[in-house]
Amino acid sequence: MTGQGDPPGVHAGGEHLRRATAILGKKWHPLLLYTLLTEGPLGFNDMKGHVDGISDKVLSEALEDLQESGLVVRDVVEDKPVRVNYSLTPAGRDLEPIIEELLAWSHEHLGEGP
After folding, report:
1. Count of domains for the chain
2. Residue 110, CB half-sphere, CA atoms under 13 Å: how many?
3. What pLDDT does 68 receive?
4. Order of strands across the sheet with 42-43?
5. Position 74 in a domain
6. Which phi and psi (to 5°) does residue 74 adopt?
7. Which helix (H) or strand (E) holds 43?
8. Judging by beta carbons within 10 Å of its beta carbon (0-12, 13-18, 19+), is residue 47 exposed, middle or buried?
């Protein structure tokens, strides 16, 4: 059954869920959001230091994607030298309970990793 305003073939809420998972389903996005939730505003190199295995190029692209999605903001700090900090927007902070539940679910159902 489709809800009003949903394209044919998409049940109520399906389009919104697809859009949300298009953001949260990317490999590095949940880790970056979790890092900003737990560590607060961070510079590029600090972010990279908190997320094992991410390259500069991938981190840059992921942060740009999260900015375009309205979840992360890039602040230029006019200091010597000029630096950039990344922090969560209110919409990004609103994801905290979802990220926390995803983490709890993974502990319960996936156990410890390799």
Report:
1. 1
2. 9
3. 97
4. 42-43, 83-88, 72-77
5. yes
6. -105, 120
7. strand 42-43
8. buried
Q: Which residue has the tokens 């922090």?
A: 87
- 3, 11 Cβ separation under 8 angstroms: yes
Q: Tell me the average pLDDT across 48-69.
A: 97
User: Three-state DSSP class for 75?
Assistant: strand
Question: What's the CATH number where 95 sits?
Answer: 1.10.10.10
List, in order, residues 6 or more apart from 1 with CB less than 8 Å away.
11, 12
N-term to C-term CA, the chain:
42
Q: 85 pairs with which residues across the strands? A: 43, 75
Q: Name residue 112's amino acid.
A: E
Rounded mean pLDDT of 58-77?
97
Inside any domain, residue 24: no
Distance of CA 13 to the CA centre of its chain: 21
| Residue 94 structural domain | 30-110
* Cβ 48 vs Cβ 56: under 8 Å: yes
